[in-house]
Amino acid sequence: MGKVDKKYDKKYDKEYSKSKDKGHTLSFAVFLCGVCFALLIPPDFFKNLQSLSNKNRVASSPTLNEQSYSQSYSHAVPNIVHLYLHRNGEADPCSSLITIPINPTNKFIKSTKTPHDFGSALTSLLLQGAQGELLQNGSDVKIACGTVVGDKGGFDNFCDMGKLKTPIQHDHSLLIRVPSYNTLPCSYFTREGVRIDSFESLARAKKEGEDNVNVYAVPAGRLFMFAPKFVGEEFDLSHVSHPENKRIYLETLSVSPRVFDIHGFFVESEADDIVERALAQQSESHKLKRSSTGANGYSVSSTRTSENAFDTHSKSAKDLKERCFDVLGIRPYRESLADGLQVLRYNITTAYIPHLDWIDPSPQLDHDFITSGTGSNRFATILLYMTDFEKVEGGETVFVKGASLDPEAPSKEKALADLRADERLSGLFKRDSWEEKMVSQCKSALSVSPKRAKSVLFYSQHPDGRKDEASLHGGCPVLVEKQKWAANLWVWNAPRLGYPEAPVKLDKGNSKNKQRRKKNSSKQADPRAANQKDEQKHVTFKNRGGDPTFKDAVLHYEDTFWGNLGYSQQHSVNSFEGHVWNIKVKDKTVKTWIVGKDKVQVYEV
Ligand SMILES: O=C(O)CCC(=O)C(=O)O
Ligand SMILES: [Fe+2]
């Protein structure tokens, strides 16, 4: 292993192990007080929960998925829960029925206060069950929830994928290792993506009329993913607020790739606003122009012939991005996981060839894109449509590896023959061009025709982070004189390229990389460099108000939008020495701050 690897490893070790067992304090005895609870749970369980203490936890910004959704389950709390455990993204349970007694006055339950306490406690409890100690009507509980790939060990290995496969989320240091096992805990969700963050919300997750709760365990560092079993299956998202108070729900369009119609995701006024704002964008980086591809700047592509614009911080864009996170079960909203809203316009014959939204790693960048490891990349896409298209008009989004929903869909060969036989259409494309081939895929595979205010969700990764090759999709050629308007929201699985906390790739001996990294480290300016000074600085940017130059100030990390910094606004961030923060007004940089040595720093205008 090279020097850089070792350094990286050390930094990663440091990050990864920040979550280590926090040591126990105080009131372990109070755990033992709940007699009723203790009768049903083996005493070992309590013994093993000694380390659930807040002591030594590193203070941090609000935590991913921290917010409770328990308000959406308003009925009385039952005192016993029967649950089936699922691995994230899997429709079938991996356990037999598990019985957990819930007594809200029980001191142990009361002392499990944060989502992280709860994650650790429930993981511990389930691991006890896996050892046959948790009794269900006198018989052993079966928990066969080990890792999916490589099948290394049991549920503990599932929740803690190991330091080489656990992306560092912003709440990583708050995770509480599972007592006795010293492994990272899972987080737990309902089938609809509602975080279960306490024993009470576990009890409340039981729906009226149902006997059991289905609980989905998500490994540390990973995000919740819906687990459809069949096409047409619905997921009620009534916990997500709708701008017109309508119901939002998912309808499964395909199980692999995982594609859903999100009914009610957005409304017509938002669709109009997106188009208007895209047309009004003036700045070079954001205005409507021929699309480019890849992560390395702007270069026009011959297989992506649409135009696109970016809307990063209008009210509609922000509302939609936040709603998108709610739908995905990621709370609270994190700007570092969201790509700006990208608006797309297609004219007759223009298209975007089938591709993955998952970005291929680039040798030019230090960013770690490999999501089966610790990297970050695009995780989910929500596509928004602003115009109506009939099937014959083209412009669909096609998932070339998905099965068509139309039982009468032609084969690819028949679709191609039909296209060539149609005089009007055959004149639109060169014979054997990618566009011609694509039209035949659009007619034969799973495709979604644009409809005003319709939206689609799909995932580019498997639940454990591996790239999902089945998510190959494209924007079909428009076949009529009409414009297709669409937009996409991309959500990353961990801080995205360009953000201070974004993961840096392991150097596999590439000397060019090593040289660049050395250069970067001496400058101390590249946030993606592995060997920058490790110590985080707590930095606050403030606008006191009064200086008209900064009335409409916008804070950027280098060129990446961070937040508005108008009069009286402020942002607190964790950054590193040498990081460059810019204030822009009307897209011009008017002030640059470079983070200094002090642990706590305040920059004001
Ligand atoms: O336009 C479409 O239907 C798909 C667009 C797309 O896949 C993309 O922009 O990444
Ligand atoms: Fe795409």
Walk me through what this model shows.
It is built from 14 helices and 27 strands. The protein has 605 residues and is an alpha+beta fold. It has a 9-stranded antiparallel β-sheet with strand order 8-9-10-18-15-20-13-12-11, with helices on one face. Strands 2-1-7-5-6 form a 5-stranded mixed β-sheet. Strands 14-19-16-17 form a 4-stranded antiparallel β-sheet, covered by helices on one side. Helix 11 (412-421) packs across helix 13 (434-444). The longest helix is centred in the first third of the chain and has 16 residues, at 115-130. It folds into 3 domains: 3-218, no CATH class; 234-492, Jelly Rolls (Sandwich), CATH 2.60.120.620; 535-604, Sandwich (Immunoglobulin-like). Strand 5 (187-189) and strand 6 form a beta hairpin. The two termini are 46 Å apart. Its cofactor is L-ascorbate. Residues 502-545 are annotated as: Disordered. Residues 511-521 have a biased composition (Basic residues). The chain crosses the membrane at residues 21-41. InterPro entries: Oxoglu/Fe-dep_dioxygenase_dom, P4HA-like, Pro_4_hyd_alph, Pro_4_hyd_alph_FE2OG_OXY.
